[in-house]
Design goal:
68 residues; mainly alpha; 0% strand
């Protein structure tokens, strides 16, 4: 799959997630989560974040309301 095709698929999923979530997730929240997930899925292991780096990501320090 090309980078452009993969990007289009992620954009489509982002749109579905933000539109179908009944306001539970903001586009900023979802963009941050998708960026984290995409970084974790990089094929080249030297470019992927370590487990420690992933756990330090701001996404995991949010409370239930989505605020840090």
């Amino acid at each position: 799959m090309s980078h452009a095709t993969a990007g289009a698929k992620w954009d489509h999923k982002l749109e579905r997630f933000t539109k179908g979530s009944e306001g539970k997730h903001t586009e900023v929240d979802v963009n941050e989560l998708f960026a984290l997930l995409r970084s974790m899925l990089i094929i080249d292991p030297t470019r992927r974040p370590s487990a420690e780096e992933v756990l330090k990501h701001p996404w995991f320090s949010r409370d239930e309301t989505g605020l840090s």
